Amino acid sequence: MYVCICNGITDQDIRAAAEAGCSSLPELTMRTGVGACCGTCIETAGALLEACRPSSPPAATTALVVLSRAA
């Protein structure tokens, strides 16, 4: 379904951004353009991002911590 009509952003676009590590509404706007025009979609987009956000950080973050400890 379309969440942001102005920029053609769907719920799948927001889910994909969340899975890619997007962690805030401003970041979602920068990545997708959602909410950058009229702003009507902001509440829905924020709720969807919150619901889709992974509970743990991406694996790359964990690997970075391990590498920095070894150095």
From TrEMBL:
Pfam families linked to this entry: Fer2_BFD
Looking at the UniProt entry, the stretches that span the membrane are none
Q: Does the keyword Iron-sulfur apply?
A: yes
**Ranges for the BFD-like [2Fe-2S]-binding domain?**
2-50
Q: Which Gene3D superfamilies match?
A: BFD-like [2Fe-2S]-binding domain
Q: What molecular function terms (GO) are annotated for this protein? A: 2 iron, 2 sulfur cluster binding; metal ion binding
Which residue positions does the secretion signal occupy? Answer: none
Name of the featured protein: Bacterioferritin-associated ferredoxin
